[in-house]
Every structure is written in structure tokens, then in C-alpha cells.
Amino acid sequence: MLQEPKNSELLSHQRGDSEYVHQSDSKSKKLLAAACFLTLGFAVIEIIGGYVSNSLALLSDAGHMVTDSASLLFALMASILSQRAASPQYSYGLAKAEVVSALINGLVMFVVVGWIFYEAIQRLTNPQPVHGLGVAVVAVIGLLVNIAVAWTLSKDSKNINTKAALLHVLGDLLGSVAAILAGLIIFFGGPEQADPILSMFVSCLILKSSYSIVKTSLRLLLDGVPDGLSYHEIGATMSNVPGILSVHDLHIWNMTGSEVALSAHVTINNFQNWPEILDLIREALDAKYGITHITVQPEEESKK
């Protein structure tokens, strides 16, 4: 009767395996927690300020910040999940929870932008009085808060989950700038339509960045070839390793936003040389592309 291997044996990495541990190396938990606290705290202040001053720019920025607070909280939960080690149920761990979080954050921003445009069009056709000075004062405070939050999150900008959260905060930062401009324009006698127009301008900038996050997240979830890597070039590099006759069934994908994995079948002329060939493959992929998590199956050339 065959003895069933222990889970720890199946999940462990032995000598010669890659060093990847199937966990996110994100340092973002504390950063996300701090950003969430600051964002939610000021969102309450901005909602009150927007209501009192009747400013769409402030209310839309407050809407951003409330949404961002939820997004940051969700990103924090995903970051915690991604730290969990691989298990029999999730042999690659839960590192891609951060990618799912980034995708949801990007999609939520589309909804927020749609709401802002709808409200802005209503304000353009039916202008409403706005307290310019009050808008500018609250927006300046919001700008300082957003700068602090953006600076905090920028410390871990390589992580796509944190990058998506940073996108939300940068959208808030732009919203604060727009609100300041709108408040000053109205305070100095300019048209009240400046408030919705600037809100729409900021929304267009946010929409472009949101599309980029959604596109990247979908590529990661669909195991697309990572940006900056050429599928055909990597295949050619492996084919040029001494002892390899051909490469097929090649797959290259992201384990997380920063960790790249590769699997392939290679045809060789002599199995006795396989240990040396495998070492050459590892060295070539690591040196040229930084790929260390590889699985290569050798197949001996068929004899006819």
C-alpha cells in the first residue's frame, strides 16, 4: 500500500527548486492601515464641508475618499490574505488576492467617475450657488491629507494592490486641486460652472489611470505574459542553451505582480547531460529576465 506524502513535503521546496515561497512579499499592511485611517477621517470632514458650501467638487472628492477608504480597507484585507502560505487547497498561496483587490478597485473607480459626470452635467444645465472660500479652505486641507497618504503608499508602489490604492488617492489629490481652483474662481467672481467643469476634468484623468489598473489586473489574472518580457525571445534563449534541440509548451506568467514563473518542455539529445543543461537554463533565465521560478520537463529526441 502506497504511503500518502505529508502536506508539508508536497508544498516544500528542496535543493534545486526555486526560492519562491508562494507568499506575497508585500510590506504594505501598515501603510494601507495608516492610509485608510487618514482617508476615512478626512472624508467625513469633506462631506460636511461640501454639504455646507454646496460644492459638487468637494462632494465628489468626498465621494472619492469614502470609496477609497473602503478600497484601502479591502486592499488591506487582500494584503493580509496574500501573506498566508501555500496550502493543499491553494498550492500557490493567496498572493493573487492582491490582484483581485486591484481589479475591484479599478472597476469601482469607473462607477465613481460615472456618478461625477452625471452630477456635473446636472450642475452645468442648472447652476447652483457655491461658497467659494469655504470650498477652497476645505480643499487645501484635503490636499495636504492626500499628499500625506500618497507619500505613505508610494513606499510600496511596486505592489499592484498598493498601486491600485495609490491610484485612488492620486485621484483624490487631483480632486482636491480641482476643488481649490473651483473655490478660488467662484470666490473671485468667476462662473459657478467652474465647479462641475473641473470635476469632469479630474474624472477624465482618473478614468485613464483606472483603465490601466483594470487592464493590468486582468492580464495578471488571465496569466498573460508579463509586461516587458518577450515570449518568443525567451523561447529563443532557451533553445540556444547547449544540449537543447527544441522548446515547446512554453508558458510564462505572473505569480504575483512582481514574481514571474515559467514552465516548458525541452527536447534534448542525451538525458545524462540533463543536470548540466538545467543549470544552464536557470542561469540564462535568471541573468537575462530575472525569472527564477521555473519548471522544465526534458524529453529525449525520438529515435527513428
- Helices, by number, come to 9
Percent of residues in beta strands? 5-15%
Mean pLDDT: 75
**Proper CATH architecture of the largest domain:** Up-down Bundle
Number of strands: 3
Shape: elongated
Order of helices and strands: HHHHHHHHEEHE
Which value, in Å, is the CA radius of gyration?
26 Å
Strand order of the largest sheet: 1-2-3
Overall domain count = 2
Helix-residue proportion: 55-70%
Supply the CATH superfamily name of the largest domain. Answer: Cation efflux protein transmembrane domain
Largest sheet: 3 strands, mixed
CATH level-3 fold name of the largest domain? Alpha-lytic protease prodomain-like
How would you describe this protein?
The protein is mostly helical. The protein folds into two domains: 26-221, Alpha-lytic protease prodomain-like, CATH 1.20.1510; 231-300, Alpha-Beta Plaits (2-Layer Sandwich). The chain contains nine helices and three strands; from the N terminus they run ααααααααββαβ. The protein has a three-stranded mixed sheet, covered by helices on one side. Strand 1 and strand 2 (260-268) form a beta hairpin. Helix 3 (56-82) packs parallel to helix 7, helix 4 (97-125) runs antiparallel to helix 7 and helix 5 (132-153) runs antiparallel to helix 6 (160-187). The longest helix has 29 residues, at 97-125. The two termini are 39 Å apart. Residues 7-14 and 20-27 have low confidence and may be disordered.
